[in-house]
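> tool_call: predict_assembly(chains=two)
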Amino acid sequence: MTAPTSTRTAADAGAVAVRIRDLAVSFATDAGAVRAVDGVDLTVRPGEVLAVVGESGSGKTVTAKTILGLLPENATARGAVVLANKAGTAEHDVVSLSASQLRRVRGTDVAMVFQEPSAALNPVYTVGWQIAEGLRAHGKVSKAEGRRRAIEILGRVGIPDPDERVDHYPHQFSGGQKQRIIIAMALVLDPGLIVADEPTTALDVTVQAEILDLLRRVRDEFGTAIVLITHNMGVVADLADTVAVMYQGKVVEQAPVGELFAAPQDDYTRRLLGSVPRIGEARARTAERAAARPAGWAEAEPVVAARGLEITYPGRFRTPGFRAVQGVDLTIRPGEVLGLVGESGSGKSTIGRAIAGLTKVTGGSLQVLGTEMHGVRPRELRPVRPRIGFVFQDPASSFNPLLTIADCVAEPLVVHGRARDVGAARARVDELLEAVQLPRAYGDRFPHELSGGQRQRVSLARALALDPELLVADEPTSALDVSVQARVLDLFAELQAELGFACLFISHDLAVVDLLADRIAVLYRGRLVEEGTGEQVLGSPSDPYTQRLLASLPVPDPVAQAARRVELERLRALD
Amino acid sequence: MSSAVSAPKASAPRRPSLWSRLPVVRQLRQSVGLQRGMLVAGLVVTAAFVLTAVFAPLLAPYGYSQLRDLDGAFGAQQSPSADHLLGTTVGGYDVLSRVIWGSQTAALVIVVAIVASIFLGILIGLVSGYFGGWIDRVLVVVCDAIYSFPSLLLAILAAIVISGGQSDLWGGILAAALSITVVFIPQYFRVVRSEVVRIKGEAFIDSARVIGTPHLRIMVRHVLRNSTRTLPLIVTLNASEAVLTLAGLGFLGFGIEPTAAAEWGYDLNKAIADVSSGIWWTALFPGLAIVLSVLGITLVGESLNDLADPRLRSRRLSKQVAGRVEQTSVAAPTVPGGVVTDELTLPGEASQLDTLEGEDRS
């Protein structure tokens, strides 16, 4: 099709899907040029899965986008990205290709799978049309032929009844199915390489396991090489053949997956692996805490007691409401950490918000610190407010961007009359900042001048400002990098032990919850399916959903993960 | 810990001075290339307009309603000459003086119209967006209804109601300004309301509610200050619309009497008959004044709009790969029990990198 920019004999370096040589990319920003990728060398062989891992800002996505020539306008690239076609007969240097040459390479030689499947599909066209569009872009294909091939590829990525569903629109598919369709779109021209940028990050754990299976099949059946961008070490252990660890724009280590996990060479890799939470790590600490409880603790008045709790979101104009939580019973006793796990849409955040009085309770009973939340009036809620702290998920949006950190932390003190103004509260604010291990000087900064991890620390400081008896933490670490998450969780555990507040810790990550919680409650579609200590729930789960959830969770260890995969297969066969 | 705190990283980054954080000034420093050219051109034209308005009594050779000087009457429709640089109108006024004095009227109308509409618009936008419910629905419907009227028709109606169609300087200015206000309030309402609705969904409003902050404090301290971001843009665009509406009113005969103040629309109206008889100066200069003032203000507004959007904002693109790699979260090993010195991002750049990476783990 295109005139190859360079032709090499296969003997030169063996068969190679893509070879990146000394790649450097910089971006023009308001604050001057910023270098995102700095001298990266990578090689992917046909039929190999290369995982590129690293924290946000390490340059892994920019590297991946360079392979497709998808850099934004304000980027400047240097170096070579030599891309071979699947047959290995032609090679192109993507960095120096013109726009029209790039268009011909995309789709046929390299394709992309995006992070957010709902955003990557056009809602006004059928999925069949969208798959055939790739075919049409690379040659004349009749309507019938396009449809036939769309049906074929949909069947191969595991969409049931493909000849019927080919005419469906994206909103008629679930998130996991949408991601399968995106993969089908990438595969339809049979490219030699697929770049998958966080393909499972937006999906629930159980769906993630299915997509990882599919990607493995893509490698085995289609012989496609995959560049997998991810921050999840479990996903790496599950799927990758080789791993490249990126840090600050450089590849610090590249090794086969087994070798990397067994004997990491680079210091950064070791730290990264060390900060990945693993199930069962904190059993001893939990047992210690349980042993230290005073007698009669179990009979003490619970901080939170829900009986048959129901929460329904009102529907619009006579449509029935959406029942987010139904018939949930749970208790949190003083000084206890209850971990609440579930997939997206399971109602876990709704329960947290209801406890804090942000969402109306519509049925059953919810006692928080002795106040019945069902039908509570705002006036009655006021005295309860200062006794509850709340840590939000998104560190980026949980602070007023126009107030300094000190203003934000002082806000609860001022509102509840503990301090006249911010100046008077400053001593307490400094104390709180030190408690969350931030320098006092940070009080004069603005939220955007802090990193995500630092902001979550401040969020914790603000929640603890009034010495609450109960803290609700709604996915406090899920927006953070693993390494940062590890330290925020440590801090959290330390403060909890020191101040002794009760806590509802909400997360979708079983390993994170296991690290902190005394007891774990598992939610599934608004119902509580299992509750007990970490050892009971994660050690020997009794509910089939919990079993599946646990088996789907990829562990950051390639050997153990292979064993779990077999176990998951067995569970699926039972269904 | 003390050693870590005293490290240079812990010192707060130097805050830009107040001057460079002002709207317009900040954008001017931020802009490059064509966008900067547009903004500078707009600012120059607008500054000329404002200065002319302020110093009109000094700049204009004659008064706006002056028909004669010591040498006698000016005479009607005199062509440009040394005495009358831009000639005289059919009514016998000096064109140059009318154009210069007219800028004063236009500037006054802009100020009155914006001051009158901005406060009410922001107030009802804030209340409507924050509380929602039926108040919100009613206000939105009313504003939509006002939108559906041709704005000039509404302005004419308001002008008749306020002053019976004709009046003196302040009566005329108020009539024009307030009639424009009716059209502007829905615009401020819409912009502020949509910002408030967006901000209401942000987690920091939830966090204010969780600690039991009263509504008034949330509205003033958290919502209002964050929802005024697009106002400079709307103000500039409305300013140019105010000039046009005033000129339109004057042109249709609902403006200000020539003896009360100079007004470009009125002069244009009276110049209609002149155009066909080859007298070009009576129509050209007031028309040019309208076009230039509107163009200047619109250029400023459009540039502000482009610069406010990071996707439209152009930046200096380097030919070579340049810059340094930003520090991300895990640079140094953790100091046990110490402060976290290893997490440092520079203002602005962190968010930039976040968008590049496009990683959202929610």
